Amino acid sequence: MGPQTPNYDSWGKTLKAEFSDKLFNESDDQSALVYLLLHEKHKWGDKVYLENEYYFEGYWLEIVGKLQRIEEKYLEIEKRSSELRRRKAEKVAAAVNGMVREKRLKEVKMRFGKEGWRRPFITHFTGCQPCSGDHNKMYSGENCWEGMMKALNFADDQVLRAFGFIMRRCPAMSLPPLPQSGRCRLAFRRPGSLGH
């Protein structure tokens, strides 16, 4: 059903017809999986576990506005734990800090999910369509861009913290673009952004 197959366009139409709320005529992995589970449950049903206890892939509109508060909550936990504040070798820190942090998170009852305050594992920018610019009309391309920048800064901080640094929030990013690779070119760009 993916873009590497000759039937990609026809699968897109099939999935759009199957799911009335699907916005685009393109096949995607989520729709394809649901389609297979609906139409070939006997073949795939016992081989698939649908996780619903963990907020694996969060919708960006639900997450981006909470990122600063999430970070504040984690910093509060870190301030109360000398073990988390102590810097360690990266390999040691990943294992030890993970266990200590998980224990502290459970103590303060920080949950996963839309109402929870855990760090998102994946922030999914569903509907932004940066390659085509054909984003969901419920929000602007500018909102998508700003949300992506917030999520990227948040993720950068998670990496930098392991080395004892934190990024100060800058009002505008100034990053040089990589040489164009692939077919995706951001269609919603802030004027003057990314060196353009």
TrEMBL record:
Keywords from the UniProt entry: Glycosyltransferase, Golgi apparatus, Signal-anchor, Transferase, Transmembrane
Gene Ontology annotations for the cellular component aspect, listed alphabetically: endosome; Golgi membrane; trans-Golgi network
GO MF annotations, alphabetized: galactosyltransferase activity
Pfam families noted in UniProt: Glyco_transf_34
Keyword Glycosyltransferase: yes
Membrane topology note: Single-pass type II membrane protein
Localization per Swiss-Prot or TrEMBL: Golgi apparatus membrane
Keyword match Ribonucleoprotein: no
PANTHER family on file: GLYCOSYLTRANSFERASE 7-RELATED (PTHR31311:SF3), XYLOGLUCAN 6-XYLOSYLTRANSFERASE 5-RELATED-RELATED (PTHR31311)
Protein name as annotated: Uncharacterized protein
Organism: Dioscorea zingiberensis
